[in-house]
Amino acid sequence: MSLTSSLAIFFIIWWVVLFAVLPWGVRTQAEDGEVVPGSAPSAPSRPQMKRKIFTTTIIAAIIFTIFYTARVNGWVSLDSFPFMPTRNF
Asked: Is the pLDDT of residue 14 over 90?
């Protein structure tokens, strides 16, 4: 697998994991009772983005390592995934 392909796959995995991690530990301004004027009550009071980016990177690295190991050792190939469903008429 080339470096470009590896980086692209890691980026895709990282992006998907980011959307899974974003809701973790979110408290809205309404829940905290301190709504900033001009913002929605459902806006997060403390988003903690640095922590979520760090967590996303660690989880994505673990998933990518598993994928890369499986791909290099031949456990998984593109032939393992059906691209076109078969039609039985």
From this structure: yes
The number of CA neighbours under 13 Å toward the Cβ of 22 is: 9
Residues 6 or more apart whose Cβ sits within 8 Å of residue 75: 69
- pLDDT (mean) for 72-83: 74
Buried b / exposed e along 4-39 (16+ C-beta atoms within 10 A):
eeeeebbeebbeebbeebeeeeeeebeeeeeeeeee
Domain residue spans of the chain: 3-31+41-75
DSSP tally for the chain: helices H, then strands E: 3, 0
> Distance (Å, rounded) from C-alpha 26 to C-alpha 5?
34
pTM of this prediction? Answer: 0.77
